[in-house]
């Protein structure tokens, strides 16, 4: 039992680690960037179209990396949506180590703050798979003003931002959270 306790992170997180020199952007409209967060740098890919309807902010699952998750950009091109995706700490080319859920949520907010201003007044889709499901739902639950600007929300990273007294109008009509468990029952 003690062995399980000390090895639990290897059961939860299954990153593919890539060399810093490994190229990820494979088309001229896909841009590779680095996001500085306290104690680490997050690797990100951003499909940027000339006049997109909005953006899909995609948070991937607990295994792999951007190399295995940032697939089929043609789908997003046809839909005329930009796609933005990060690798969590220790995944792909991202540095650092995941220490807590609060840290993951803070990293997601920092990544969103990097691109949010580009999508003011446009549609935003927060999409998560597996590990990214809860993170995407948390991002989508932010008040609309924070979603559009990327501003830090007023709740602590480990608090539940969904308040019982919230009204439906607080949620942005231009935002949507999509989450799939990745278990095949979709």
How are helices and strands ordered from N to C? HEEEEEHHEHEHHE
In spatial order, strands of the major sheet run: 2-3-6-4-7-8
Alpha carbon gap, first and last residue: 34 Å
Helix and strand composition category: alpha/beta
Poorly predicted parts:
152-177, 179-186
What CATH calls the topology of the domain at 32-160 is Rossmann fold
Q: List the total number of helices.
A: 6
Q: How many strands appear in the DSSP assignment?
A: 8
How confident overall, as mean pLDDT? 80
CATH superfamily of the domain at 32-160: Alpha/Beta hydrolase fold, catalytic domain
What is the subunit arrangement here? single chain
The main pleated sheet reads as: 6 strands, mixed
Identify the CATH class of the domain at 32-160. Answer: Alpha Beta
Radius of gyration: 16 Å
Q: Tell me, what's the shape?
A: globular
- As a percent range, the share of helical residues equals 25-40%
In the CATH hierarchy, what is the architecture of the domain at 32-160 at level 2?
3-Layer(aba) Sandwich
């Amino acid at each position: 039992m003690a062995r399980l306790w000390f090895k639990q992170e290897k059961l939860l997180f299954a990153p593919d680690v890539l060399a810093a020199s490994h190229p990820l952007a494979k088309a001229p409209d896909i841009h590779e960037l680095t996001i500085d967060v306290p104690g680490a740098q997050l690797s990100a890919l951003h499909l940027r179209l000339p006049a997109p309807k909005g953006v899909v902010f995609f948070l991937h699952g607990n295994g792999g990396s951007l190399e295995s998750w940032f697939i089929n950009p043609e789908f997003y091109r046809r839909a005329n949506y930009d796609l933005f995706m990060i690798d969590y700490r220790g995944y792909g080319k991202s540095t650092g180590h995941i220490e807590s859920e609060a840290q993951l949520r803070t990293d997601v907010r920092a990544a969103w703050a990097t691109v949010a201003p580009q999508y003011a007044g446009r549609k935003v889709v927060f999409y998560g798979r597996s590990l990214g499901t809860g993170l995407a739902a948390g991002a989508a639950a932010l008040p609309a003003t924070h979603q559009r600007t990327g501003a830090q929300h007023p709740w602590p990273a480990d608090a539940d931002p969904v308040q019982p007294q919230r009204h439906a109008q607080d949620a942005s009509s231009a935002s949507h959270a999509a989450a799939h468990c990745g278990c095949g029952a979709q």
